[in-house]
Design brief:
The chain is mainly alpha-helical. It has a domain of 68 residues. Helix 2 crosses helix 3. It is elongated and about 55 Å long. The N and C termini lie far apart (45 Å). The model has no long low-confidence stretch (mean pLDDT 79).
C-alpha cells in the first residue's frame, strides 16, 4: 500500500486524502496504555527536573517531595488539557456564531 501511494505522489495524482502509511486502529486498551505511558513519562521527567533544580539552587530536597510536586503539576495540567479539549469540541459543535 505505501508503495502505491508513493507512486501516485510521483505521478502527480491527488494524494492528500490518502495516508502515507497505514494507521493502527486505536482500541480502548491501546488508548489507555498510551495515556498512562505519556503521563508517566511527563511525571518522571518533571520529577527529575524539579530534583535537579532544587540541587542547583542549593536547597536540596528528597526525591519523594519532588515526585509529589510533579504529580500535582501533572494532574493540574492534564485536567486543564481535558477541559480545553472539551471546550473546543463544544465550541466547534455550536459553530462560529458572532
Amino acid at each position: 500500500m505505501p508503495g502505491v501511494l508513493l507512486q501516485n505522489r510521483l505521478r502527480g495524482r491527488d494524494h492528500r486524502l490518502a495516508p502515507l502509511r497505514e494507521c493502527r486502529v486505536m482500541t480502548a486498551s491501546w488508548s489507555w496504555r498510551r495515556e498512562i505511558g505519556s503521563v508517566g513519562l511527563w511525571w518522571s521527567t518533571l520529577t527529575l527536573v524539579l530534583w535537579l533544580l532544587s540541587r542547583s539552587t542549593g536547597q536540596p530536597t528528597d526525591v519523594l517531595r519532588c515526585a509529589a510536586s510533579a504529580a500535582l503539576l501533572v494532574t493540574v495540567g492534564e485536567v486543564g488539557d481535558r477541559l480545553r479539549r472539551k471546550y473546543s469540541t463544544l465550541k466547534s459543535r455550536r459553530g462560529n456564531r458572532c
